[in-house]
Amino acid sequence: MAVRGETRRRLVSGTLRLLRRRGLHGVGLQEVLAETGAPRGSLYFHFPGGKEQLVEEAIALAGQRGEKWMRRCLEGSPTVAGGVARMLGEYADLLEASAFADGCPVAAVALDLSATPGPLQAACGRALDSWVTLVAAALRGEGRSAPEAESLALATISAFEGALLVARARRDASAVRAVAVWADSLLSSAG
Fold first, then answer.
1. Where are the alpha helices (DSSP H) in 76-144?
2. pTM for the predicted model, two decimal places
3. Contact, 90 vs 70, CB < 8 A?
4. pLDDT at site 180
5. Measured in Å, how far apart are the chain's first and last C-alpha atoms?
6. Which of 59, 68, 102, 139 is geometrically suited to a Cys-Cys bond with 123, CB 3.0 to 4.6 A?
């Protein structure tokens, strides 16, 4: 017997996996059904808003998972600089292990969006904001002022996402590792 909500979770997680590899325009509902093995009727039952609603929930899940992972890296390191370096190192390893196929699903969707604001743009913004907020809070915990912590956190997440894009385009994780060195230097000396 299936657990209530299991199909819904499977659809959202499957969509997230596909977004990491293909971006928004590379993922259709047929691919989601093939990836998850869910029946077509369950897709429209759980997501009457169609693809946009499904992707919005997948981005929310990506934001939560990213925040949990970042929190683990930050809490497992004696400094924020060390935690950020750990995040970047782990992501460089993930990129290499996936042959540069697995990128950030939030960035992949954000890059595919038009300039017109909408629910998916807002979902991407919320995910990125949650990551900036997490890093900023950690920096404030090290004694940085709120404006400095916010600025450093925004620069760090922006550099992180940019490095992932460069790494995937070049099929080389050296950009991610270079940002790790930059972030370690910046975050260790700022204050």
1. 80-97, 105-112, 119-141
2. 0.92
3. no
4. 94
5. 56
6. 59
